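Marked as duplicate of an earlier ticket. Keeping the data here for the record.
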Amino acid sequence: MINQKKIIVVLPAYNAGKTLSDTYNEIPFEIVDEVILVDDNSNDNTKEIAKQLGIKHIISHEKNLGYGGNQKSCYNKALEIGGDIIIMLHPDYQYTPKLIHSMSYLIANEVYPVVIGSRILGKGALKGGMPLYKYVANRFLTLFQNILMNQKLSEYHTGYRAYSRAVLEQIDFNKNSNDFIFDNQFIAQIFHKGFEIAEITCPTKYFEDASSINFSRSLKYGLGVIKISIQYFLSKIGIHKATIFKS
């Protein structure tokens, strides 16, 4: 705990058997109280390794729900067991757990209610091996969203995020997609609700066993980002409020 805040790390897992141990062993358990792993119907040994590591809360999906569906199970369980600070960490070891301290303290000290690890601040993305086309797309989509949403984030597309309990309770994330666009919808909801987001520089690693979406799914995601940005803009100027922005 920090300042009597219960800290929970959630691991949305899919075929993470080769990287789960490395990720788990870097989690700072001097401040982290609980770990939740949600296995999205993996076809490898993810669940077995999670049990060997002693992870107490393991949820197994009987069918693959997708990245967004996985996170919904993560956050609902974290709220159920009393989490005050909930940190979403990919178990593919692409993001370092060593930033959990910094992310947690910003929320525990009530500086910000949401903290994300940005690969774009500094030179973490390209240095870590992010494909050039993904980097360019990231920069374009972020600029587009910043203009339509009147914000100044360095990126909207990181998968390393920490939330206060209040954010998860006040935003109906269960309305969001079960696909990869979930993350972007959630950020749009956060800003729409009036919460602020802090960013910290995050190194990242791209390697064979790290999860990544292919070009066609990246294209689908990019079009989804544009749609969400336009929906946000229309909602804020009072023309049309999309379902995800309705209380």
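See parent ticket for discussion. Strands lie at 7-13, 34-39, 57-60, 85-88, 114-118, 161-164, 197-201.
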